Amino acid sequence: MHGPATSGWLLMALCAVTGSYCLLRTRTGSEEERRTARAEALMGFGMAAMAVPAAAVAPPTWGWGVYAVLFGVAALRALWFSRRSGHHLHHLVGSSAMVYMAVVMARAGGGAHGGHAAHSMGGQGMAAAGGIPLVTGLLLAYYAVYVLRSGARLVPVAAVATGGGPPPSGWGARPELALACRLTMGIAMFAMLLTL
Question: In the chain, where are the structural domains located?
Answer without folding.
Answer: 4-194
